Each structure stands twice: as C-alpha cells, then as structure tokens.
C-alpha cells in the first residue's frame, strides 16, 4: 500500500469508506496493495472480523480483489470515478507505438457527417417520451441480418441497448443476484470481468482455445453453479478465438444439460469477422445474442441490437424503460443509414480485409521466432510469455506499448495482448523482433531513433 495513504476507521463502514476515498482521490491507484486483515485490524485497534467485513463489502462492489499470494489489491479498473492520477490511463512514451488499446482503426471508420446530413435533409424530428423505444425499421432490418447469420429469430424478440456492455449489465442484473456465479472465458474481455465484479457476481473461468470455450471448461463452470455463461462467438478479446461449427455443437450439448442457465453471446466484431458465425443462440431457455456496431462503424456509436427469448428481452426492455428510457432514435436512424449504405458496406469489407492482413502478418512474424501467438480473428494477437510484467516493461522501453495479460486473466497462463489496428507493414518485423526478445527476457531492440522522436 502507498505509504502516504493511511486507511482509517473503527467500523466496517468507516474502513470501507476510507479505502473508497483513497481510490477516488487516486492515492490508492489500480493494483495498489491493501494491508492483510489482521495487520490492518491491529493498526486500527479493531476486530479482524470488522476489517474482513469491510473488505468483503469492497469486493462485492468490485473495488478490490483478492489475488492469491499477491494479497488484496485495488482492481485495475474499479467502478468508481477517480479524480487523481489514476483517473486517466497512463500516456504512451513520446514516439512509442501504442498497441494496447484494443480499439479499431479510426481511419477505416465510415464518415458519419453525410448520414447526419441525410437525416437533416429528411427533416428528422426527435421522438417524444410516449413514442420512444427501439426503432421498428431498425429492429426489422436487424431481424433480417440475424436470420441471414442463422440466429433463430422466429419467435424471438429484439431490442436495442447502449452498446454490448450495457446489454450484458441489464441481462445479468435481470437474471442473477449478488454472489451468483457467471461462467466467463479465460482469458477474456476485461470490461466484462470488471462488470461482473461491480455487480457483486463471481466469475468462474472457462479455458479458451482457438475454437472458443472448451466443452470441459464450460461443463465444469456450470457444475460449479454458474447461473449464466458469456461466450464471444468471434474475434474473442484478447485471444481472437472464433467458435467453430464442431465446437458449437459440443457447447450446445453441454448447455442442453443446464437449460435454466442464461446464455449471453457476444458478437461485437459482426461484419468485421472473416469467419462464418456459428451461434449458440437458443441452446438454453434464457438466451441473448448481442451485436454492437462500435467495431465496424465507430466506437462513438453506442448501440447494440439484442435478440433473445421473449422473457429475457422483456426484462431488458422493461428495465431500460424505468431507467435510461431508450437509446436515442437519432442514433438508431444513423445506424439504419449505415446498414443500408452500399459505400459503407464496401468500406467495412475493406476494413475487415485490412485487419486480416495485419493480423496474419504479425502472427507469421512471431511464429518465425517460435512464439505462441494466437489471433484467429479480431483486432488483437495474444502472445504467451513467461513473465508478462517484464515483457511489458521491456517492450515499453523499446518503444512499444502493449497490454499486460493480467487485465484479462483469471487462472490462465501469462501473456500479452497486442492490438494490430495501429500497425503499418513496416512495423511488423521490428515489432516481432522486440516481442521475441522480451519473451526471452533478452535485451530488446529499440525502435528506430527517427520513430521515437517523431
């Protein structure tokens, strides 16, 4: 724990409030260690049970986590607004190539201006409270697109949420209660892991290979009592896994043994994925297939279409009605225009092909060094390393910023995530050289002085 911050309090509420204040101010930053229960109890002259209760409250709220031998620490992204130095992501060193974000290449995003101008020319009128909700034209087009991908939309319902994570939050909150278990991919999407912690739920890891969650991992997670399972159909973050036809059949067979489990399927890459969709939708009685538009069309388009069984979608739409209300119909109209625009459709195809070229080139370069690099689909490549902390630091010193695997892992081995969207062709070979040296813990070649001073 940072020596300059002292946790205070004599009751569980006061102690947890003091820790929260430290996180909020930035004095207890992401990853900051907290004292052991007995040590803090001795310092504060209170019962160990009091400190343990305070820590339990903080864990249930997703602010802290117990990391085995590493003790109790502040989560990397606790669900609380911060005002200190931990409020912002650490900037990349001057001239460094930032490959840590997981974001798409904005240069490949369609221009929104012409679509907004089209709305203005059509004399678009904002909706009122009475008529608000999912835009019928958008829902019907989504239904057609889902049906074309083999999603069982006959008898299913469709609604709209403010992105994939918003959909997941509403789905989990509607079906589960604090303390319930959720089967998640390991390694898996960091945002989903943070959300699960913030909801007071417990993540149960499912190992992931190139074809998605393993059947044995899913079966073990369900046997442990998981009430929900989250599966990324394609472009899994961070490994790039994509569920194959054979794996989908295996997973369906496992899910059939637990028909009451909530199945959440995440297809965030959508049109950017270069492989056929093999969905698990309908494998259980409660299911939801979530497809956001952020990756193909732009991160600022906070919208996802969600298909599912009637009861599940009714819960999501009903909860939204008494909360945020609806996703802006202005935003829904923009997405509708994008889906109907041939120029945009062709642009998404070019973006997909560009990501494929970059990803395959990096994987080939890393494989030439004998590195275990995964990335069948998506915007990232996952590289196994013996010591991810040293690898991340060595690459940073060499002019490359990558994401440490600890953000994505629960029980899986160490690794680093490299986002391929910022890469140019000339970046591939020197990056692979640097990663190979970092993975071997050898001196890492720095990027050229010209690049570092650009």
From TrEMBL:
Keywords of this protein's UniProt record, alphabetized?
DNA-binding, Pyridoxal phosphate, Transcription, Transcription regulation
Q: What would be an example GO MF term here?
A: DNA binding
The record's section on Gene3D superfamilies has: Type I PLP-dependent aspartate aminotransferase-like (Major domain), Winged helix-like DNA-binding domain superfamily/Winged helix DNA-binding domain
Source taxonomy lineage? Bacteria, Bacillati, Actinomycetota, Actinomycetes, Micromonosporales
Q: Which organism is it from?
A: Catenuloplanes nepalensis
Q: Which SMART domains match?
A: HTH_GNTR
The cross-references to InterPro entries, in alphabetical order and at most eight, read: Aminotransferase_I/II_large (IPR004839), HTH_trans_reg/aminotransferase (IPR051446), PyrdxlP-dep_Trfase (IPR015424), PyrdxlP-dep_Trfase_major (IPR015421), Tscrpt_reg_HTH_GntR (IPR000524), WH-like_DNA-bd_sf (IPR036388), WH_DNA-bd_sf (IPR036390)
Name under which the protein is recorded:
DNA-binding transcriptional MocR family regulator
The record places domain HTH gntR-type at: 9-77
Family, per entry: In the C-terminal section; belongs to the class-I pyridoxal-phosphate-dependent aminotransferase family.
